[in-house]
Structure formats: C-alpha cells, structure tokens
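Suppose a colleague, Dr. K., hands you the sequence of a protein chain of 355 amino acids and asks what its three-dimensional shape might be. Before reaching for any lab equipment, you can write down a predicted structure in token form. Begin with the sequence itself:
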Amino acid sequence: MKNYILAVGLLISIPLFSQTKIVKRTALKSNNFGITYSLPKTSLIISAEVKKSTCKAGPYYIYAEKYLGVKDVVTEDKVFYSLGKISLFNKGIPDPNRTYIVEFKAGTVAPYAYLTEDGLLCSINAEYTPEESEIEIARKKRIQPIRVADASVYSEELLMAGSVAKQAEVAAKQIYRIRESRLNILTGESDNLPPDGEAMKLVIQQLEEQEKALTNLFTGIIVEEYSDYDVTITPYDNLDKEILFRFSTHLGIVDADDLGGTPVYLNLKATERAPELDEKEAAKKEKSLKGIVYNLPGKASVEIQMNKKTLYKGEVQIVQFGTQEGLAPVMFEDKKAPVKVYFYPETGTIKQIIQ
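The predicted structure, expressed as tokens, is then:
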C-alpha cells in the first residue's frame, strides 16, 4: 500500500506560486461568534532545476586554433541536459479531517482572524501580511544566462572571400581590427574619439557585440534554457528509495517508470514523532481539544540521491508525524488587552503570542 501522494509538473519560465491571498474573518453575532478554519497537513515540494544546453558549431570551428588560438570550441550541433540544484519546500494544504469552528464568548470585543484563501489560520486579533514563499524567493535569485546578441557580421569582404578557409581568414582579420579599434578608443589614440562618456560606452558595446558574433563563427554558441520540475509528496510514513523521477542527459527529466533515465530517489525517515494512540486514546485526545487547536509537528530527515550521490540532505517538519494542542478561548476575553496570536500557516504551529 502506498504511503504517500505523488504529483508532478514541468514548468518553463512560468512561476508556480503566486503570493498567498489572505482573508479576514470576524466573530460576530451573525455567525454565532464563531470562526471556521482548517489545520494544514504537510506536503513537500521537491523542485529540480534543469538546464538545457543547445550547442551549435560555428562554420569555421576547424580554424579556431589556427587563427584565434582557441582549442575549446563546439564541433557539432547537439542538445544535452544537466540537473541543477534540488530544493525542498514545505507547503501546507488544508486537512479535511482537521477543520474546526472556534466559538468566542458573546459580549467580548469581537475577535477576528486572518486566514489563507483556503482556510488555513494565520493570526488572531492581529493584522497579517503574507510573506513571500521560499520557492518564490529561490527562483527570483536564479541568474538568467546572458544571451549573445545576434549581430550581422557577414560583411561584403567576408561574403566575397570564396572558400571557407578564406572566409575564416577574413573573419579573423576583422576580429583583430575590432580589438585594435577598441584598444585605441580606450587609450585615447583613436583619431575619431566619441564625444562623451555615454557615446564611448555605446561604441565599445557595439564593438564587443561585433567581436563576439564573429568569434562565435569559430567557437560556436551554447544557448542555455532553464526549467523547473516539481514533485509534490504528502508523506504519512517513512519512505525508502521512492523514485521521484528519472533523469537523462539526452532527454532531461522523464517519468519515474521511464527506463530511459537514471532514477532519483527520496529517503524520508521520522526523527521526532508523537506516540501513536489507539482508537480509544485518540478519541479522548480529540474530545479534550478546546478553543484554538494548533499543530505540534514532528520532524523527519530527508535525503535525495542519484547514482549514490546526495543531491539534497536536510530536516523538515512533518505535521502528520506530530499532534495537536489547544489554546483556551478565555485567553481572548480580555476587552482591554486582547491576546494576539500569529501562526505559521504552512504547519499550523504558533509563531508568536503577544499579551
């Protein structure tokens, strides 16, 4: 029997997560001074960064060493993939078995709460501003590759050169002329210097783009594109060598059952776990929960591997391995100084209590 829920998705240049939407709920007479909310259960998002490299050989690559002294060049057109950083994020999802209505005492200052759009508790009697998610922050930090400018470099002289060998010779001479022109401008030895600093910057940039485009005719180009592949797991027990997906340098990420790729495994082991209760004890525990029910998560160690190499290792809070406790409603009955409580909506734990 499977002890986890698995879902996968491929994202290319599209952010998966938007900022959490928050709604305010107030305990009024019209709703019997009650606020309904849900506690989350833990879902883990494993995010794999994939780089696709498209290589295109330059028409003069066999002359790169002869004319430019460059040995490391693209010699054939090909596409290959590489697996980048593996990240793990904790995302709380509403637990349908943990939905509560908390009723406040009539006549007190009307308490209010902030909930996520899907009903997870964020705060009570306190203004709440959602923070940017970890995965949003991580993806914003990614440095995008610099694209090579597509400058027109086939001059009349180059096109009239005839043979490929002669064209390579002409292109190399153009590169050295551009380098000399740039050096003369930078050292002030040019007869036609740009009138000001901004103009000089523009001229230098144009010369560099022309040189780069000509050089690419010898070295070739490699265009890099990044995508994110996300796997969501909702664990209910330890996991041993569960295949998240498979990876191929020729195909990129493929399905877990596609033997064309090397498997990427996840191992998850509980390190802190609440004692298991029998049916009678669980019922008694549930009945004893009063007021604002919140989570006390357990913990688990997580390791992700491919070819016996560790791609990710860390510890994560798992609500399913923990238990629940309650805050008595009497805490919120002081009209002069109502208690403020902040929660982590991802785990349902208390972040801060202000009295």
